[in-house]
Amino acid sequence: MNQKNHTVFPSNISLTIKREDLIHPFISGNKYRKLKYNLLQAKAENQETLLTFGGAFSNHIAAVAYAGKESGFKTIGIIRGDELIDKIEGNPTLKFAQENGMQLEFVSREDYRLKSEKDFLDNLKQEFGDFYLVPEGGTNELAVRGCEEILTPEDSVFDYVCCAVGTGGTIAGIINSALPNQKVLGFPALKGDFLKDEIRIFAKNENWKLITDYHFGGYGKVNLELITFINQFFDENQVPLDPIYTGKMVFGVIDLIMKKYFPENSKILLIHTGGLQGIKGMNMKLRNKNLPIIKSDV
Question: Is 58 a catalytic residue?
Answer without folding.
Answer: yes
